[in-house]
Automatic annotation (TrEMBL):
<protein>
    <submittedName>
        <fullName>Uncharacterized protein</fullName>
    </submittedName>
</protein>
<dbReference type="GO" id="GO:0016616">
    <property type="term" value="F:oxidoreductase activity, acting on the CH-OH group of donors, NAD or NADP as acceptor"/>
</dbReference>
<comment type="similarity">
    <text>Belongs to the NAD(P)-dependent epimerase/dehydratase family. Dihydroflavonol-4-reductase subfamily.</text>
</comment>
<keyword id="KW-0560">Oxidoreductase</keyword>
Length: 342
């Protein structure tokens, strides 16, 4: 069985590829450039004992002509590629929304033309459920039934929401005889070991904590999940009969930044990393450090804890969540080993 993984060079995709190869699947991955040795080399080394070597091809979300050959002969597609920058971009429309939405549609059109793909698993986000909105109800528990209000979203959340909606709409419009299946995964804040070759947005918080980029911690809350659990969820959603046509929220632990910092401090302070654990008052945010570029997004989130139901992750996909301490510390150790921490 041949699986296409789009955006192979990414944090989440690298774990998906490793697990697929370990399970004996043939895997083809798309990258924007085969020339980028720093990104390609770690991919080739993900699973040295794999029965089938990883095949890499070039494809770009905004180049529709690149996708037909990429999906050729595939049985499944796992679509992770989407812009996920670690700062607010100048023009969200062209830098985020267009590539996410048109890219998803380009991949789906190629699948429709190729006729071999049975199911597509799309990496969506909890941003499509609660978004980066202000005024999100902290008393409510959000479920897969909920959709963020696109009129109130930041560029990234909007790109993810419109891309996922475009996928479900695309499927609805397909003639019966050309139908394939779609399942989507909505991860929260993904943490865990780094096995790919580039800086990614998920690394921001642990990196800033290890580097003591701020003396005090803003009161920010995250619904976190281990990257290995997210990867497994994608692979289970590819074949589990009951996953077809469904969204799956993937969050497993709710933590304030201070909780994350405490886990890191306990392990790494003795090793000389001066990890901050002092909680700033609720109204304050350390503008000069961590969230300088995203302060507009961050301030409305201060002190707020959002509740999300994630029962399908366990009940439909059978994921046994990793311990949050293991997730956080594995991320830190691989970031330090990989030279990602100053
Ligand atoms: P990465 O930035 O590591 O991965 C993003 C991938 O998308 C990269 O491989 C990147 O390729 C690719 N990509 C971006 N733009 C294009 C384009 N125009 N054409 C082709 N490929 C492109 O981030 P993650 O692994 O964290 O994210 C993967 C997916 O998971 C994204 O869809 C993201 O929205 C989603 N997600 C992530 C969460 C997290 O906490 N990490 C939480 C919820 C959802 P290149 O290497 O060439 O830049």
């Amino acid at each position: 069985q041949l699986v296409l993984v789009t955006g192979a060079s990414g944090f989440i995709a690298s774990h998906i590829i490793k697990q697929l190869q370990t399970s004996g699947y043939r895997v083809r991955g798309t990258v924007r450039s085969l020339e980028n040795e720093a990104k390609i080399k770690p991919l080739k080394e993900l699973c040295p004992d794999a029965e089938h070597q990883l095949e890499l091809v070039e494809a770009d979300l905004l180049k529709p002509e690149t996708w037909e050959s990429a999906v050729k002969d595939c049985n499944y597609v796992i679509h992770t590629a989407s812009p996920f920058p670690n700062q607010v971009v100048k023009d969200p429309e062209t830098e985020l929304i267009q590539p996410a939405v048109e890219g998803t549609t380009n991949v789906l059109k190629a699948i429709q033309a190729g006729k071999t793909v049975k199911r597509v698993v799309i990496t969506s986000s909890i941003a499509t459920v609660i978004g980066g909105e202000t005024g999100v109800d902290t008393t409510k528990t959000y479920t897969e039934e909920d959709w963020a209000n696109v009129d109130k979203l930041d560029g990234y959340s909007k790109s993810k929401t419109l891309a996922e909606k475009a996928a479900w709409d695309f499927l609805k419009e397909l003639p019966e005889e050309e139908r394939f299946e779609i399942a989507t995964i909505q991860p929260g804040y993904v943490l865990g070991p780094i096995i790919h070759g580039s800086m990614c947005t998920s690394m921001e918080v642990p990196k800033k904590l290890l580097e003591r980029a701020m003396p005090g911690l803003p009161k920010l809350n995250f619904n976190i999940v281990d990257v290995r659990d997210v990867a497994e969820a994608h692979i289970k959603a590819m074949t589990a009969p009951e996953a077809a046509g469904k969204r799956h929220i993937a969050v497993t632990h709710n933590m304030w930044i201070r909780d994350i910092a405490s886990v890191i401090a306990e392990e790494y302070r003795p090793q000389g990393y001066n990890v901050p654990t002092w909680q700033l008052p609720n109204f304050a945010v350390w503008v000069g450090g961590m969230f300088d570029k995203t302060v507009k997004l961050t301030v409305p989130q201060l002190g707020k804890q959002y509740k999300l139901e994630s029962t399908k992750l366990k009940e439909v996909l059978g994921i046994e969540p990793k311990d949050s301490k293991e997730t956080i510390l594995d991320m830190c150790s691989t970031m330090i080993e990989g030279g990602w921490v100053k």
